[in-house]
Structure formats: structure tokens, C-alpha cells
């Protein structure tokens, strides 16, 4: 993988571990010459990771909708800045550029991007690896939510394999490099199975 899209908080969060692990993920990107694709902000976990990569000679591409955010949010030292029309184009552009996706702790925007990426994988729109860097158990409730979704019959067990989870950045990137898309079967349980 040469380019990974990272979804993460535009705020730093309440634990120092969040920023520390974002920077450690940046170190892994540098070691493997992986370009960061992200939303283009200089703030929060997003900004911390971008600054670390840029300060150490790595490449960072930011994608931001025109006029949606204050100009002071835009990272001023990006390798490449892509301005797009709206959030839909932003997400599509980042997805098209990336070889894989990683979610760090974040808020509603991070969840929305992660779930859209998972949904696209479930529908077969892409087969790129998707990871969650589980800092201080941040994503434990999300994994439990997905397991409950399976238990309640709204998602197949095989779909759990779409999300790779690790607590160590290098381990997560290794999982992504070795990712083989799972065989999901049909999403819709009420449709008859067609013999092959």
C-alpha cells in the first residue's frame, strides 16, 4: 500500500494516548513510505499526524470542500491540497486516491466516514482494507455494536471481517498489507439463493 486514507478527530480528545498513537501511526507511514490522505486540517489528531509526517519528509494530501470550513483550519504545508465542491466529492476523492483506510478516534464525522467505507465494501463497491486503531479501548463499543448487529440478524457474521482492529499501528498496517477480502455472500437474507 502506497496511500492510506485516515479518518480521525478534528479535536485532540481527552487522553494523551490519542495523539501519541496518531504520531506513532505517522512513524509507520514514514517507515513504509506511505502517503497520508486525509481531510486537510491542521487541528486535532488529523493535524498532529500530518505535521509529524511532513516534519520528517513524508507526503500528505489534504482534501477539503470549498468554503465549508474556516480557512484557518487548512493545513498550510501539505504536499498536495485538493479543493472540492462538497463533502460527497471529498469522500469520493479520498476513497479513490487511497489503497486502504484507517480510523483513529474521532467524532460523528469519523464514524460517518468509517461506516460509509464499510458499507461500500459490503456492497462490493471496493475491496480495500479498512482498519480501526483501537487506542485505549476507544473502538470497543463500536465492535460490540457490530457484533450485536450480527446477533440481531441485521448483518452477516462474515461482514465482521471487513473491519481490521489493532492496538498497535505496525500490526494494523501489517494486517492491511495481508488483507484478503472476505467472501460475504448475499446481503439480503430474504432473497432466494441462486444456485451457481
UniProtKB/TrEMBL annotation:
Listed EC numbers: 3.2.2.n1
Q: Which PANTHER family match?
A: LOG FAMILY PROTEIN YJL055W (PTHR31223)
- What's the superkingdom here? Bacteria
Q: What lineage does the source organism belong to?
A: Bacteria, Bacillati, Bacillota, Bacilli, Bacillales
Q: Which Pfam families match?
A: Lysine_decarbox
**Family, per the entry?**
Belongs to the LOG family.
The record's listing under NCBIfam families reads: Rossman fold protein, TIGR00730 family (TIGR00730)
Query: What are the alphabetically sorted keywords of the record?
Result: Cytokinin biosynthesis, Hydrolase
Q: What is the protein name stated in its UniProt record?
A: Cytokinin riboside 5'-monophosphate phosphoribohydrolase
Which Gene3D superfamilies does this chain map to?
Answer: 3.40.50.450
Is Mitochondrion tagged as a keyword?
Answer: no
Amino acid at each position: 500500500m502506497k496511500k492510506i486514507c485516515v479518518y480521525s478527530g478534528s479535536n485532540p480528545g481527552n487522553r494523551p494516548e490519542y495523539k501519541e498513537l496518531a504520531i506513532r501511526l505517522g512513524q509507520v507511514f514514514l517507515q513504509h513510505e506511505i502517503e497520508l490522505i486525509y481531510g486537510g486540517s491542521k487541528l486535532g489528531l488529523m493535524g498532529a499526524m500530518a505535521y509529524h509526517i511532513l516534519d520528517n519528509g513524508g507526503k500528505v494530501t489534504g482534501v477539503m470542500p470549498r468554503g465549508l470550513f474556516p480557512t484557518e483550519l487548512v493545513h498550510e504545508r501539505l504536499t498536495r491540497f485538493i479543493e472540492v465542491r462538497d463533502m460527497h466529492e471529498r469522500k469520493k476523492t479520498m476513497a479513490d486516491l487511497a489503497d486502504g483506510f484507517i480510523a483513529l478516534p474521532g467524532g460523528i464525522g469519523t464514524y460517518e466516514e468509517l461506516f460509509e467505507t464499510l458499507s461500500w465494501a459490503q456492497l462490493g463497491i471496493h475491496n480495500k482494507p479498512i482498519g480501526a486503531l483501537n487506542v485505549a479501548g476507544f473502538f470497543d463499543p463500536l465492535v460490540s455494536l457490530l457484533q450485536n448487529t450480527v446477533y440481531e440478524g441485521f448483518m452477516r457474521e462474515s461482514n465482521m471481517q471487513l473491519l481490521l482492529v489493532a492496538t498497535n499501528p505496525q500490526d494494523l498496517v501489517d494486517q492491511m498489507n495481508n488483507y484478503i477480502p472476505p467472501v460475504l455472500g448475499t446481503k439480503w437474507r430474504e432473497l432466494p439463493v441462486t444456485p451457481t
